Amino acid sequence: MSQVQLKVQNDRQEGLAPRKTLSLRLTERDFELFAFLLDEGFLTLEAVYLAFFDSRKSTEEPFPRHLEVTRQRLRLLEKANFIKAQKMPLQSKGVFLLTKKGYEALLQTLPERAFRPPLRAIEIPNFAHDKAITFCRIALERTKKAFAWYPERRIRYEGFSHGRKRLPKDLVPDALFLNSKGERVALEVEPARKAKERYEKKMADYRWAIREGIIQKVLYVTRRTDIAKEILEASRGKENFLIEHYDHFLSRLFPKGVRP
123-260 has which fold? Predict the structure, then answer.
């Protein structure tokens, strides 16, 4: 396991107490957490637990009380300034973001994952949408149905190409990943209804990307029946376009009756 010994100094006023040094050893899991934070922008406490600390044998088992082990590690990483907590309006719980120091540690250890500096703050209007993408990712990866995750932030920053073909700049899925068959899938999480023309335009763009071999399938995720109907009509029933209910993903993570 790759580990880095890093020290955080706690300065005291001169003459009152000697300077204390807190030694924090970063583990492989910490670096994977940093990379995940960079990919998705932020994580809730529950998302961190589900992605990195969940040892339940079944999703029907309740979460550990207060998720204390997860909280303790996050507190240490926050105290060492590798991550930071941010409160959200109208939310009882905050979220966690990667700091510049955390990014620099990731850059030293997993440079291929450190594709751009982290978010400084969360875009409030996109909060629910982005949180849903994260839970979809965790559910897909835990069930071995998604590999080589390529997040929206990286697509916007670097673009995406396969061979000599490249996704158009105006076609940006919420993520790209490889499924268990090795097919490249574009993920689209749809929390709100859009004009029919927008669905049809995007479907046409995706059909082009499928013909060119850049992707093989598109997975739409929504909670609303009316949105699913619009997507189905715009896709013309093609088998390359899949529609899943968001609760299907949550059921792979949370006990019955518990939702984020």
Answer: Trna Endonuclease; Chain: A, domain 1 (3.40.1350)
